[in-house]
User: What shape does this take?
Amino acid sequence: MFTCVGYAAQNASAPLAPITFQRRACGPKDVQIDITYCGVCHSDIHTVRSEWGPSAYPCVPGHEIIGRVAKTGSDVTRFKEGDLVGVGCMVNSCRHCESCEAGLEQYCDALPTWTYNSPDPVAPVEGDHTYGGYSRSIVVDDHFVLRVPENLDPAAAAPLLCAGITTWSPLAHWKVGPGHKVGIVGLGGLGHMAVKFAVALGAEVTLFTTSPSKVEDGKRLGAHRVVISRDAEAMKAEANRFDFILDAVSADHDVNEYLGLLRQDGHMVLVGLPEKPMSVGTFALVGKRRSLAGSAIGGIQETQEMLDFCGKHNITSDIEMIDINQINHAYDRVLRSDVKYRFVIDMASLPATA
Ligand code: NAP
Ligand code: ZN
Ligand code: ZN
Assistant: This one.
């Protein structure tokens, strides 16, 4: 094992601060990665603040990891020292349940080992949990390491590992493409990637935002239409229009306002994970055979497909780069919906020791 520097919260109300912790040594099937950039996902904030139930502390978040391979284990053939690689939300899974066999490790019956704040069966300190990418380096089983196209700006590629795959996977699963009218709800980290992908896939894209200041950005990102979701008249005019709506909102809100915007047999898919359960009006679903579904990140194979698509079409995230000591301020801005459109931490700014 070796000592690693990172940034952690010590409890649900503490700011993030430097810490040292232990990582396992690089084993035969492992890839050891020097982390260069890490994106800041709203899930980091939900977890750090125990909004989804009690978290394990110290909590080192970060699951939009980009770096260079520092070392590979003796059984690893797919990677070599110096390769540009990424790690997303998972670092392991059971590998043999129905979901794992289908390449959908995120739905593993035994639950995947999440990149941070997850019980870690191979922790160097028995009973410890996983530590994420707000840190100097990480050791990951090679199955969960992604190849990042070298033509992409590595910092702007970091958010692809969560915001990217989380929006790509449902668009691919529900086969969104030319001729489809698609609504994207919320222009944050996930929402802005959803707009880019839905446009690249050939759909007619309408952005729903609560922020009038984001109308121009929505159009610049490719949305064909933008609707201010707090304008009741404007929302009424959208009734029965959409084949597919992707909801990427982080806070409690009323989904029923969107169900009525689906046409017959339309699908609404939730990727946002607000703290509280929501209530759903059954008449809106039953009345036009609409469906409401959810979707979690994406499998490893489809994450690689998404990264390759981004390499081919030169798609990355719109980012604001920060030093690690600005992270607490960045969290405040995310909570105010004031991020254009993903914070990415430059890991060169980590202190040498805690
Ligand atoms: P984000 O950057 O904070 O974006 C969330 C957006 O939601 C905001 O920019 C805002 O867009 C909108 N919003 C915020 N408060 C709102 C409110 N009270 N009412 C209506 N809209 C509101 O967050 P993110 O990183 O994209 O993550 C979004 C959600 O997805 C989080 O809950 C996160 O945990 C979850 N997530 C899920 C998965 C998965 O696998 N399913 C993966 C990653 C993240 P406007 O200003 O445009 O209204
Ligand atoms: Zn995330
Ligand atoms: Zn499994």
